[in-house]
Amino acid sequence: MTLNGAFYVLSEMARMNPNWTKKVSQISASSIPNTKREGYSYEVFPTPRGVKFNESEYFIRLSDFEACISEVNDILLQGNKGSHFPIEVRTHKGETGMLSPTQGEDCAVLSFHVYKGMDSKPLFDWLYEYMKKWQGRPHWGKVNKLNANELHALYPDLNYFLEIRQQYDPDNIFMNSWLEEKFLGRKTSR
Q1: CB 3.0-4.6 Å disulfide test: which of 6, 17, 96, 115 passes with 11?
Q2: Are residues 10 and 94 in the same domain?
Q3: What pLDDT, in 10s, does the model give residues 125-151?
C-alpha cells in the first residue's frame, strides 16, 4: 500500500470515528520526514494528492514564526480541533503583487488541512480568531472567513486590482459569486 493509500485509510477511520483523530494525527506526524527543500514552487511542491481535504493558509511575519508555531502546537496538543493532518510550514519571500499574501515582507506560511467529509468549522473558526493575534493574512483564494472589509484591510492594493480587473473584464466573465462576496462584499446567486 502506498503512503497515500495508508493515509486515506487512516483518514477514513478518523472521519468515521472522530475519537481516533488524535491517534491518527500522531501516526501521520511520525511518518512525515523533516526535510528542507529549496527551489521554485513548481519544482518543490508537486506531490500526488490522493487524499482530498479543505485547506486554510495563513502568512505571518517570519520574525513571529517561532513564537506562533510554539503556541499553535501547544493549543492543538490540548485539542486537535478535528484535524489529523500535520501543519505544513514553509517560508516565502516578500512580493509586491497586489494579491500577494506576503505584501512585501518575508513570511512564514502555515497551512492547515481538514479531511473531506469532516467538519472543518472548529479548526477554521479557531484560526480566523487566533491568527488576528499575529496579523495573519490568509491566502485569499483558499478557505477563509474574511469579509470584504477585512480582506481590503489586509490587502491594501485590492481596490487597484479591482479597477484593473474591471477594465479588462467589464462583463465579469472571470468573476463568480465567491469572489464577489470576498472582493466586493455582496452575495449573489450566480
Answers
A1: 115
A2: yes
A3: 999 999 999 999 999 889 999 899 999
